[in-house]
Design brief:
Layout: E1 12-16, E2 26-31, E3 36-40, E4 46-48, H1 58-61, E5 67-68, E6 78-86, E7 92-101, E8 107-114
Antiparallel strand pairs: 1-6, 2-3, 2-5, 2-6, 3-4, 6-7, 7-8
The protein binds zinc ion (ZN) (2 copies).
């Protein structure tokens, strides 16, 4: 696991991303302040990260256009993982998107996605 520690000192559960189409774990990632979408570098299939789809629309892009996540080394291929920050009652509060560069291993967390899942993880 490559995400940096807990958010706000709360417990964090990390779920590595894998492509539903081919099982690959390398993605190009589009992010803005409200969401993230990943595109598999193996088969090109796209998926939203957590509940990003709810906020992923042209209306919100007017102020905040999504951009491709990039490493300082110039690579745009990442392993992606999602970290769920849990509240005191075990409900999901925040989703953090974590990326690790495939070239040099540089890690970053480009976005915090507020979640309204309100559910409980297993
Ligand atoms: Zn794939
Ligand atoms: Zn890099």
């Amino acid at each position: 696991m490559f995400l940096r520690g807990a958010v706000d000192g709360r417990p964090v559960k990390i779920a590595p991303s894998a492509c539903e189409g081919c099982g690959g774990g390398v993605f190009f990632v589009l992010v803005n302040a409200s969401g993230a979408e990943r595109e598999c570098s193996g088969c090109g299939s796209r998926a939203f990260i957590a509940d990003s789809e709810e906020y992923w629309n042209e209306e919100s892009w007017e102020d905040d256009e999504p951009g491709a996540a990039g490493c300082p080394c110039g690579s745009e291929e990442f392993e992606a993982a999602v970290a769920f920050s849990l509240g005191d009652d075990g409900s999901v509060r925040w989703v953090t998107v974590g990326l690790q560069c495939m070239k040099d291993g540089f890690c970053q967390a480009p976005g915090f996605v507020e979640t309204e899942l309100g559910g409980f993880l297993e």
